[in-house]
Design brief:
The complex is a heterodimer of chains A (125) and B (649). Chain A starts with a strand and ends with a helix. The mean pLDDT of chain A is 85. Chain A is α/β, with parallel strands linked by helices and 125 residues long. In chain A, helix 3 packs parallel to helix 4. A five-stranded parallel β-sheet of chain A has the order 2-1-3-4-5, sandwiched between helices. Chain B is 72% helix and 7% strand. The two termini of chain B are 49 Å apart. Among the domains of chain B are: 104 residues, Serine Threonine Protein Phosphatase 5, Tetratricopeptide repeat (Alpha Horseshoe); 79 residues; 66 residues; 160 residues, Heat Shock Protein 90. With 649 residues, chain B is an alpha+beta fold. The chains are: A alpha/beta (125), B alpha+beta (649). Chain A: This is Response regulator receiver domain-containing protein. Chain A: InterPro entries: Bact_response_regulator, CheY-like_superfamily, Sig_transdc_resp-reg_receiver. Chain A: Keywords: Phosphoprotein.
C-alpha cells in the first residue's frame, strides 16, 4: 500500500523509514515523501493511481496542508484517496476545517506511531 | 472581578406596536409571511421582526435583515419603518462599531420625535442608555434609562417597563450598588411574572446581586433558572451571561473545574452569537482558571482570544470616551470665552461709573475671572492627563500582545525539534532491542546488523542536530531580550557598513564556497557621525546583507539563467534630519503576502532549520525602538528587494 507523507521537515523521512522498517521490508507498506504541498501535487499528478493514503502536515510554508487537501479532493476523486491531516495545533478550528474539506482522519503532533501504525494497518486491503 | 456586562434584552423585540404579531413567532414563520404578497410597509416591519429574532442567535444575520428593512423603508418613504430599522441596525452593530451604533440610535431618535412615535422614542432612549453604560458613564446611562422607563409608564407599556426596570437593575449591579440593583430586579421580576414575559435576564441580575452579597446557594439557583430559561427561548446572549455568572461564582468558591465548564459553555454561546463582550468575559475567566490550574497552553489560547476581544472592544470605547471628553472640553472653553467677553463689557461700564466702589468691584471680578481661567486650565490638564494614560495603556497592551505572540511562537518552534529528539531516541531504543535479540540468534544476519548500526549512528546525529536547533532558537530569543544594553557612541556609518558587508559575504562564502555576487557600494563621503550602538547596528546590517545574499542565491538556483549576475548594492546618504542606508539586491523579491509579514517574529521563508524567523523582527526592533529610526522594505517579485534604513542624527 502506497503512502505519501507531506511535511516541510525533511527528517520526517528518516523517522518514518525507521519507524516502519519492518512493514517496509515485508512490503506491506511503501512510503513516498514530499516536502511541500506543491511538491506533493506534482508527485500525485505523476503517480496518482498508486497513492492510497496521504498523510499531510497542515502548517507548511507555501501551500498549506488544508489547501493541498482541497486540491486533492477536487482533482483526484478516483481512486478514493484517504487523507489524514497532522498538526501541531490540536485546535478545534483546524479540525473543523479539515473535516469540512473532506479529511478522513486527524492526528495531533507529536504523532503516536503506535496509533498511526494501527490506523494504517486497518486500511490494508 | 467586575463583569463587563451588557444590559439589553430582547428589548428590540418588544418595540413594535403591532398587537397582531405575537412575540412567539419563529424566524421561519416570519420568513414564510415575508414570502407571501404583502404591503411594503408590512414587509419592513416583518424584516425588523426577523432581525429581532436573529439578534438573540446571530448578530451578523440580524444586521443583514435590518439593512434590508432600512433600504426598503427609505425607498418607499416610510419614516416609522425607517426609524425601526435604524434602531435594529444600531443594536446589531453595537459590538463591532460602537460609534456608528450610537449615531444610528440618535438618527432613529430624531425620526421618532419628528413623527411623535413615542414607543420608538422610548426604545432609542434605552438603546442610547446601553451605550453610555458600556462606556461606564453612570450618570448619562441611568438618565437615559429612567427617561425610557418614564415614557414606558406613560404609555402603559408593561412589557417595556419590565425590560427597563431590569436594565436599571443591571446598571446598578455594574456599579456595585447592590441595594438599588436588587430593588429594581425584584420590581422587574414581579411585573414580568404578572404579565408572563421572559425573566432570563432578570434571573441573571438577581443571581449577580445574590453572589455579590455572598449568598452563593441562592445565586446558583437564580443562574440555573436563567440558564434553563435562556435555553428554552434560545437566547444566546443571556445564556452567555448566566453561564459566565455561574463560572464566576465557582471561581470565587474555588471550584475551578466547574468554573471552566460553565465559562466554556458561555464562551461558545457568545461566539456563536457574535457577542464580543460575552466572549471576553468568558475567556477572561478561562485564562485565569487555566493559569491557576497550571495549564499554560489552554491559558494562552484563551488569553489570545481575550486580547483580540479587548482590542476590538476597548480600542473603540477609548476613542469614544476621548471624543466625548474633547467635546465637553470644547463646551467648557466656549463657556469660559463667553464669560470673559461679558466680563470685559461689564468692566468697561464699571470703569465709566468710576470711583472706589467701581475699583473694588473690578478687583473682585478680576479675581473671579482668574479663578475661572484656573478652572478651565485644570480641566484641560486633566483631559490631557487622561489622554496620556490612555496612550500609555495602548503601548502597554501592544507590548503584552507582542509578548503573547512571542511566547506562542517559541512554544511552537520548540515543539518540532523536541518531537524529533523524542522520536529518534525512541526508535533507537527499538533498534538496540533488535540488535540485542539478534545476537542470540545463531543464524544472525551480518548485513542486518550493519544496517541497524548505521541507523543508530544516523539517529544520534539527528538527535544532536535537533538539540542544536532548539538551542539556537532559545539563543535567538535571549538576544531579542538583551538588545539595548550596549552604549551609544558617535559612529562612522560608512566604515560600519563596509565591515558588515564583508563579514556577511565571508560568512556565507565559508558555507557556500561556489557562491559569488557582484558587490557595489556607493557611500556618501561627507556623512555626519551618528550616535548608535555599533554592535547592535552591525547585527542589523549583517542580517540585511545575509538576507540579500540568500535572495540572489535562491534566484540563481531557481532559474539557472546564464545571463543572470547576482548583485548586492549598498548606499549611504545624508537626508534631512538623518542618514539613510539602502541595501538592495536583484534576487527573488517578495510577493505582497510575504512582504506584509517579514517583520513579525518567527516568520521565515527559509527552509526548516536554516532560519529562526527572528532576524528581521529583531533588526526592526533595534532600529525603531533602539535608535528611533525606521526600517522599511520595497520589493518586486522577480526583480529584487530594497531595505531602507534611516537613523536620526
Amino acid at each position: 500500500m502506497q503512502i505519501l507523507v507531506v511535511d516541510d521537515e525533511t527528517d520526517v523521512r528518516d523517522l518514518f523509514m525507521q519507524r516502519f522498517r519492518r512493514e517496509i521490508r515485508s512490503g506491506e507498506l511503501s512510503f513516498s515523501f514530499a516536502f511541500s504541498g506543491e511538491e506533493a501535487l506534482t508527485f500525485l499528478r505523476a503517480h496518482h493511481s498508486e497513492v492510497l493514503i496521504i498523510l499531510s502536515d497542515i502548517n507548511m510554508p507555501g501551500m498549506s496542508g488544508l489547501e493541498l487537501l482541497s486540491y486533492v479532493k477536487e482533482e483526484f476523486e478516483m481512486p478514493p484517496t484517504t487523507m489524514m491531516m497532522i498538526t501541531a495545533y490540536g485546535d478545534d478550528q483546524s479540525y473543523q476545517q479539515a473535516m469540512a474539506l473532506g479529511a478522513n482522519d486527524f492526528l495531533t503532533k507529536p504523532v503516536d506511531f503506535g496509533v498511526l501504525k494501527d490506523k494504517l494497518l486497518q486500511l490494508l486491503p | 472581578m467586575s463583569l463587563w456586562l451588557t444590559v439589553c434584552v430582547g428589548a428590540e423585540a418588544t418595540a413594535l406596536p403591532a398587537p397582531a404579531m405575537p412575540q412567539s413567532r419563529t424566524v421561519d414563520s416570519l420568513r414564510q409571511l415575508l414570502a407571501q404578497p404583502q404591503a411594503d410597509t408590512r414587509r419592513v416591519i416583518l424584516l425588523c421582526q426577523i432581525s429581532d429574532q436573529l439578534w438573540t442567535q446571530r448578530t451578523d444575520s440580524a444586521a443583514v435583515y435590518a439593512i434590508k428593512a432600512l433600504t426598503l423603508a427609505r425607498r418607499i418613504g416610510y419614516p416609522h419603518g425607517e426609524g425601526e430599522a435604524l434602531n435594529r441596525l444600531g443594536a446589531a452593530l453595537r459590538e463591532s462599531n460602537l460609534a456608528r451604533s450610537l449615531e444610528l440610535f440618535q438618527e432613529s431618535l430624531r425620526i421618532a420625535k419628528a413623527t411623535k412615535d413615542r414607543a420608538l422614542e422610548a426604545q432609542n432612549l434605552r438603546s442610547i442608555g446601553i451605550i453610555y453604560v458600556y462606556l461606564r458613564d453612570r450618570e448619562q446611562g441611568l438618565a437615559y434609562y429612567f427617561r425610557a422607563l418614564r415614557l414606558g409608564e406613560a404609555l402603559r407599556d408593561e412589557r417595556r417597563m419590565v425590560i427597563d426596570l431590569s436594565n436599571i437593575g443591571l446598571a446598578y449591579d455594574l456599579f456595585n450598588e447592590l441595594d438599588s440593583a436588587r430593588m429594581y430586579q425584584e420590581r422587574a421580576y414581579a411585573l414580568a411574572r404578572r404579565i408572563r414575559t421572559p425573566t432570563n435576564y432578570i434571573l441573571y441580575g438577581l443571581g449577580n446581586v445574590a453572589r455579590k452579597e455572598g449568598k452563593m446557594k441562592e445565586a446558583r439557583a437564580f443562574y440555573r433558572e436563567s440558564i434553563a430559561e435562556s435555553n428554552k427561548v434560545r437566547h444566546l446572549r443571556s445564556l452567555n451571561f448566566a453561564n459566565v455568572g455561574m463560572a464566576t461564582l465557582y471561581q470565587q468558591t474555588g471550584r475551578l473545574d466547574s468554573s471552566i465548564y460553565y465559562a466554556r459553555v458561555g464562551c461558545q454561546a457568545a461566539q456563536t452569537n457574535g457577542f464580543l463582550r460575552g466572549v471576553l468575559n468568558a475567556s477572561t475567566l478561562l485564562t485565569q482558571n487555566f493559569k491557576a490550574r497550571n495549564r499554560p497552553d489552554s491559558a494562552l489560547k484563551y488569553q489570545s482570544l481575550m486580547l483580540v476581544m479587548k482590542d476590538t472592544l476597548f480600542g473603540q470605547e477609548k476613542v469614544m470616551r476621548l471624543q466625548s471628553l474633547n467635546y465637553r472640553e470644547q463646551q467648557r472653553a466656549q463657556e469660559a470665552a463667553a464669560n470673559e467677553a461679558s466680563l470685559k463689557s461689564r468692566y468697561r461700564t464699571y470703569a465709566l461709573v468710576g470711583g472706589v466702589i467701581g475699583l473694588l468691584a473690578l478687583t473682585a471680578l478680576l479675581g473671579r475671572h482668574a479663578s475661572q481661567q484656573q478652572r478651565a486650565k485644570e480641566a484641560l490638564e486633566q483631559s490631557l492627563a487622561e489622554l496620556k494614560t490612555a496612550q500609555d495603556q495602548l503601548v502597554q497592551r501592544e507590548k503584552m500582545a507582542f509578548l503573547g505572540e512571542l511566547t506562542a511562537g517559541i512554544a511552537h518552534e520548540l515543539q518540532n525539534p523536541l518531537n524529533f529528539v523524542k522520536n529518534f531516541a525512541e526508535v533507537s531504543t527499538d533498534l538496540v532491542d533488535e540488535i540485542a535479540g539478534d545476537h542470540r540468534d545463531p543464524a544472525r544476519n551480518a548485513g542486518l546488523e550493519q544496517e541497524i548500526l548505521a541507523g543508530l549512528k544516523q539517529n544520534l546525529q539527528k538527535i544532536s542536530q535537533h538539540g542544536q536547533r532548539a538551542t539556537s532558537i532559545i539563543k535567538g530569543m535571549l538576544e531579542h531580550s538583551r538588545t539595548g544594553t550596549g552604549q551609544r557612541e558617535a559612529t562612522d556609518l560608512n566604515a560600519l557598513v563596509e565591515e558588515s558587508l564583508r563579514l556577511a559575504y565571508q560568512g556565507l562564502r565559508t558555507k557556500e564556497k561556489d557562491f559569488t555576487a557582484e558587490l557595489s557600494t556607493e557611500l556618501a563621503p561627507a556623512l555626519p557621525a551618528v550616535s548608535v550602538v555599533p554592535q547592535d547596528l552591525s547585527r542589523v546590517l549583517i542580517n540585511l546583507f545575509t538576507n540579500a545574499f540568500h535572495a540572489v542565491q535562491q534566484r540563481q538556483r531557481q532559474s539557472p539563467d546564464p545571463a543572470y549576475r547576482p548583485a548586492v548594492t549598498v548606499s549611504t546618504q545624508a537626508v534631512p534630519g538623518g542618514v539613510e542606508i539602502r541595501i538592495g539586491d536583484n534576487g527573488t523579491g517578495m510577493p505582497e503576502k510575504v512582504k506584509a509579514k517579514i517583520f513579525q517574529p518567527f516568520f521565515t521563508t527559509k527552509p526548516v532549520g536554516e532560519g529562526t524567523g527572528l532576524g528581521l523582527s529583531l533588526s526592526h526592533d533595534i532600529v525603531t525602538t533602539g535608535h528611533g529610526g525606521t526600517l522599511a522594505v520595497e520589493s518586486e517579485e522577480d526583480e529584487g528587494t530594497q531595505f531602507v534604513l534611516t537613523l536620526p542624527v
